[in-house]
Amino acid sequence: MSKKLKWGIMGCAGIAKRAVIPGLQLSELNEAYAIASRDLDHAKKTAEELGIPVAYGSYEALLADSSIDVIYIPLPNHLHKEWAIKAIQAGKPVLCEKPLALNEREAAEMAEAAAQAGVLLAEAFMYRYHPRYAKVKKLIDSGAIGEVRGIRSAFTFNNAGDSANVRYRKDWGGGSLYDVGCYPINAARLLLGREPEAATVNALFSPDHDDVDMMASGLIEFGGGVSLTFDCGMWAEFRNPLEVLGTNGIIELPSAFVTPTAESAAVILSANGKRQEIEVPHVNAYTEQADQIARAITTGTPLAYSVSDAVLNMKVIDACLLSAREHTRVVL
User: Fold this and answer.
1) In the chain, what is the greatest distance between 2 CA atoms, to the nearest angstrom?
2) Is the pLDDT of residue 1 over 50?
3) Is the pLDDT higher at 260 or at 224?
4) Coil, strand, or helix at residue 206?
């Protein structure tokens, strides 16, 4: 590639400042070129802090900059559809934070807009770009743990005291299933290579947090007696493990979704009475994600995870939320 792709960041969200922008700055294929906020002073301050050359006081101005090659959207969930479609209509490829939308219908509309415009749209599940997931999938497919009997996973943290957080706005797409429950669901679909048949979820809806699900526990049925059991929460101790149980062994990722350190990136395989830590390359998953998007844009190399995957993940999240609200098993 002769030049780096210039990225425009739509908003000054914590995930952008803490992880995505630093990941872009490590890339040899991409650069964080511009950032926009509805408050120009805020945009300028953030740009100065992070070494970003250009700041804008509106999202419209960001989209109007012809030198920008890619748009990254870390806005609150209820704004994803509006601004992703506006970026697509401006001819800009888009990386949009997870979950892609508020529901399957919105996600499908976004995917259709991208298809009609011939513009790339991707969902920002960075964890799956880390090479350890390819390793886990290879171990499963090779029969290293025998037949898969189930997957168990969790993603929880405690931020309940931050009452002004956008995660606690129901009409903005707040709640633990949207924010962190989407990860175990996505990972189980990825590792099993098929779509689930039904979902049953129990949740804690908090009146002190605009009635969003602050904690949820679920069973996602994949057929053949194989299920994902998971829990997610924003009012519980931090953890993010994943375990694949087989007839002859277990694969474990103690830190499955948070970008691991060099020490925590290993895949733990316990099989046939032996336990081993399988080392994998330590990389920045945010950089890997951006680099794959850059290759897709410049060379036409298909993304490993198309936007159709995001639509299917939203379908499962819809079922989980319906199950939790109505206390029923939802068939997909």
Assistant:
1) 60
2) no
3) 224
4) strand
Alpha helices by DSSP H, the chain: 14-15, 21-25, 40-50, 59-64, 80-89, 104-117, 131-141, 176, 182-192, 285-299, 307-326
**Radius of gyration over every alpha carbon of the chain, rounded to an integer in angstroms:** 20
DSSP for residue 153: E
Q: Is the peptide bond before 93 cis (omega within 30 degrees of 0)?
A: no
The pair of three-digit structure tokens given for residue 213, joined into one six-digit string: 């699900």
Count of beta carbons in the 10 Å neighbourhood of residue 282: 16
Count of residues making up the chain: 332
Q: 276 forms bridges with which residues in the sheet?
A: 269
Distance CA 19, CA 248 (A): 37
- Strands laid side by side in the 30-36 sheet: 54-56, 30-36, 5-10, 70-73, 94-97, 121-124
Helices then strands, counting H and E runs in the chain, come out as: 11, 16
Q: What is the pTM assigned to this prediction? A: 0.96
Contact 216, 177 (CB under 8 A): yes
Q: How many CA atoms lie within 13 A of 137 on its CB side?
A: 15
7 neighbors 293 (Cβ within 8 angstroms): no
